[in-house]
Structures are given as structure tokens and as C-alpha cells.
Amino acid sequence: MRERLAALAARAAQEGGPGVVLAVDAPVLAVRERLGAGGLVADAPIRIASVTKTVTALTALRLAEEGRLSLDEPLEGPWEDVTLRQCLAHRAGLPDVFGRLLEIERRGEAAGRGRPWEPGRMLELVADAPRPTRGAFRYSDTGYVLAGLAIERAAEAPLHEAYRRMVLDPLGMHATHLEGREPPRGPDPATPWAPDLDCGAIDPTIDWGGGGLVSTVDDLARLVRGLHDGRLIGAATLAQMTATVPTGDGAIGRMEAYGLGLGRWRAGNESLIGHGGVWGAFAYLWPEGDAVLAGSVNRMGPLGAAATELLDGVVEALAAARRAR
User: Fold this and answer.
1) Which residues fall within 8 angstroms of residue 191, CB to CB, at 6 or more apart?
2) Which CATH number fits domain 2-323: 3.40.710.10, 3.40.50.300, 2.40.10.340, 3.90.79.10?
3) Using one digit for the tens of pLDDT, what is the confidence trace for 88-143?
4) Over the stretch 191-219, which tens digit does the pLDDT of each residue have?
5) Model pTM?
6) Which of 17, 69, 101, 287 is 20 to 30 Å from 300 at the Cα level?
7) Using CA of residue 49, residue 51, residue 55, residue 60, what is the dihedral sign?
8) Which spans in the chain are helix H?
């Protein structure tokens, strides 16, 4: 199996970008591998982008379980009719701030370069923008900025401290940090690649609660296991997170349905539950084989779509091993 996974990672690294990292943990199939390719070592730090949304949702839901945060009361912010549940599900009818931020960064127009983007400023950029239909799935990082602010109020702490207290430290994710908000936990992360964009010139703080974490494949694997094994949230809360609703005409890539900070992604003929990110990171559980798939192709693509071929190959290899048992 290791040779098959290494070949898949090497092929993904040849398609562009500064390397690939991959971790596969499938105890039932006696598979536990972690590797790097294309110049990256297996424990290299990576920008996980929207995989951060799972951590944000987990933090919010833990606070909700403790009675410190409501999923269904209106949130503070420019939009008076928006709830936390709608934000975490991308159904609040909010314009997406990430595209606006990326365009500002691409044109070099950001004021105060070298200082982190502040969430209040992010919201101002889209406060008057047209809103998509409320209730329909429309992917929007704006909702996760609102969620981050709600977490800070409920936890009475900065978002990165709430992450650490509620999710990162309990799961042993000690190599993970919110970039630009706290000291790094290791070397600088690899710079992602895009065919027509200098990703190294983009301020990494532009996505905050929607995508600002740096992590490693080992920590991402801890996140997936910890989410599903009951260490952080109760069964009823997990059921809410994983109760995915079809994305309809708002689908991105192979994200067929979405819950609260988690989506259902199709890989080959199988369904994965988890999240991907714009810089090629992914963290999924393949429920049928109780297998964790985590890593990054370090290449730009919507919701981790750049990793599609790699995920297809890994799931195919695991499914074949499962059939052969």
C-alpha cells in the first residue's frame, strides 16, 4: 500500500505546485502511512485554508453545548436576520468576502500591509453588496467571519485562544496555529502555487475564521478522529454537523452536500465527510472504511478540488484493499 500511495503523491506533485503531503490512517485495513513528495517532507506545515471552517464550527458548537452560544438567535453584525446555524451551513444569504479580499490583495491595494486583516474591516467590504437567496446553499466565508466574532464574544477571548482551549489542545494539535494572530508552531508553511497568481504575495491573514490556520497532516488526522470519536462534542451535536443537505446549484467541485462546517465530497464511487481548502488541503473521513485522509497538494483550487485526482486514487486503493479482505 505504501508504494501505491507514494506513487499517487508523486504524480500529484508533478502536476504543479511545491510538493504534496499525505496521511492515511485506516486501522481496519492495517494502513497507517504519512509521506511527502515533490520537495515537501511529511511533517511540513501547510496552510489549510477552508479546512479551518471545521475547527471554527467545532469551537462554536462546543460553546453552544455549554450554553454560551446560540445557534438560532440573530448574530451581531451588518445583517440583522442571520443566525450562527445559517452561517455554519452557508445558508445565511451572505455575499462572499473572500473573493473581494483576494482581489484587493492581487492588485496590491491592501492598506496597512504587514498588519493582519481585521474581521470588522472584512465585513465592511461586503456590508452593502447584493445578497444571494437566504436558505439556499451559497458558499460564503463572510458567515465564518461572523461566527469567529460570535465565538470571541462567547469565549471572552481572541479566536485563536478559543481554538486552542476548545479544540486544538484537547486533540493534541500542537503544531497548528492561526497565522498572523499567534506565534508559529514550526517552520514557515510552504507557499501554495497557482498558474496566474503569486500566492506568496497574498496576505495569509485574509481569511481568519474561514481559513486562516496553518497545520500538519498529523494534526489534521487528529482533528478528523477527534471530531468523530466523541472526545469533543456529544452524539447529538455531531449528528447536527454531519446532517448534510444537498448543495444544489450552489455546489462547488464535488461537494455534494453540506452540514455545519463539514461537507460530503465524492471521491470515485465513495463519499467522504470533511472539508477541503482553496490551497489544496483536505481532511476527510471515509466512513465505509473508517479511514482518515489528510493532506495537501499545495495548489490552488476551489474547496480543495486540486486534490481530486489524488483523493480518487487513495480511495480506490483503500476500497480495493477492503474488497480483498
Assistant:
1) 18, 199, 200
2) 3.40.710.10
3) 999 999 999 999 999 998 887 765 556 789 999 999 999 999 999 999 999 999 99
4) 999 988 888 888 989 999 999 999 999 99
5) 0.97
6) 287
7) positive
8) 2-13, 52-65, 84-88, 97-106, 119-126, 142-155, 159-163, 208-211, 217-228, 235-242, 308-323
